[in-house]
Amino acid sequence: MKCNVGSVDRLLRIVFGLGIAILGVIFDSWLGLIGIIPLATGLFSFCPAYLPFKFSTTKNNK
Fold this sequence. Notes:
By secondary structure, the protein is mainly α. It has a domain at 7-44. The protein has helices at 7-26, 36-44. It is elongated and about 40 Å long. The mean pLDDT is 94.
């Protein structure tokens, strides 16, 4: 698993994922579980959706 999520992208994913999860708890909705996806991709610095497009937001694209 090669990292394909850069630092800014990673930070935005973590903040966005936490925000969705917190709103799910506040509004008592199971839709807050959707926040796990951007949170996990941010924490692991890997996005499987980038693979088919050979896209990467890291600085060392080779």
